[in-house]
Amino acid sequence: MKSKILGIILFFLIPTLSFAQKDTCKVGLYINCLYDFKLDQNSYKADFWMWMNYSNSKLDFKDNQDITNAKISEFTHYSVENNKTSNWAAQKCKAEIMQQWDVTNYPFDKQKLRIEIEDAENDSTQMIYVADTINSKLDPCFASEEWDIVKFTIKDELRTYATNYGNPLLKGTSTYPQVVVEIDIKRNHSWLLLLKLLTGAYVAFFISALVFFVSSVNQDSRFALCVGGLFAAIGNKYITESVVPTSNSYTLMDNVHNLTFGYILLVIVICIISLKLFESDDENKIALSHKIDRISFWVVLSSYVLLNAAIVAFAVFK
Length: 318
What we know:
Structural class: alpha+beta
Radius of gyration: 32 Å
Mean pLDDT: 88
Number of helices: 5
Strand content: 25-35%
Number of strands: 10
Distance between the termini: 69 Å
Largest sheet: 6 strands, mixed
Order of helices and strands: HEEEEEEEEEEHHHH
Shape: elongated
Low-confidence stretches: 1-20
């Protein structure tokens, strides 16, 4: 009977003791600067201070943190203050963070930056991280000409890996505590940037549309304008792709360029139809050719402007 009672006590007591062995650490970040936003290299850089508040004075956090989504990170200026009731450790970090940029609506894009800091030594059975939501902030003096800061959040999470790294004490997987900072940003001066990138495409289309004011007698000039506009649009697309990285989905830039290519092709088709009518001996068909040229310019121009406005508006308000 006594053994059964002892077994029941141990059954409830062991998990409690196991939980009591976990150390708790409050982690916070103060971000001084965000810079070097590189779309082509899928990265940006961050400078920040990180601190840890904990009660177990035997803990040592030097070289104990890992930024799991960083290409390169450097921790410096590590300092510790110990007292009887609590301990405080702090260090500075510079890191180049990996970032998958969403350029679908570029230059009206909104991005979510993440900084993931994880304990590199203690797993979740030994350590608990608690995010310091009160003191963690982005420096209010930080200002970027390119980006506006929309939201700043910090939270604690657990990261589970589908391996035990060969540790026989772990069963199949391993879980580590981490804190995650998320910063929502949106791009500044988007309309000016849009005009800079797409002026070539718009001019190329307008050049092609001017063929309707060239007489069908000068058919070589007509088709030369269309071909010239087509090559100008293609050149503008290559220039844009050197600024905006390619994406698996259609972006705003892709849609505008594809619309331009399609309308230049439409202009060429209309010119061919008009030319066929003009070369006939029927005066009515010749008159119809002139009428098609006059009407086509306004129909093509107005529809292109409306469709382009709809594409841009969808990106802006999405």
